[in-house]
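The step that takes the researchers longest sounds almost clerical: writing a folded protein down as plain text. Below is the pair of lines this work produces for a single protein:

——
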Amino acid sequence: MPVNYYSYSHESARLIMRPLLLDDSKYWEDFMNSDEATALFPPNLKPPHFTAKDWIARQRKRYEDDQLGLLALIEKKTGNFVGMSGLIRQEVEGKSEIEVGYHLRPKFWKKGYAREAALYFMKFGFTVLKPASIISLIHIDNIQSQRVAQANGLTTNKKVIKNHGPAYVYRISVEEWIKTQSPQ
């Protein structure tokens, strides 16, 4: 049986990352009902078609199917539910990829949590899963998420329309990531 990498909690400097619970939907409602947070989501992934409970159930299914998925981000200092981040398997133009993703509740935007979580999961991915590269699929109009990806060393030269689009495919190879880990 494959290892479920997400059956236990992880920690970064300011965050505890733990598997999502169905009860977490009460915290995720404000994200799902925020026009600002979901502005770039396809209609089928927004209320009333797709709810906070649906979102969490989808991640829990990923834990079972892929041993990956988005985890809850909990602020260590306060215990507040910040959002979700983690690694997910994506198919992009017929190729299986590992994506680092992050979605934060709007009141936690611009505090560095997305960057901190993404860096943690990139390190986890490269050291445990050992892919050749890690990607982030980011809507072409999501400038904030693009800045997070760029700050974490991911670059893009590709745009996809089908399945995930219109989105940029940001990528960092294991070799590029190793360079970011070395003292300068």
User: Anything to note?
Assistant: The chain has a mean pLDDT of 91. The chain is about 30% helix and 30% strand. The longest strand covers residues 81-92. Helices lie at 25-32, 52-66, 113-129, 143-151, 174-181.
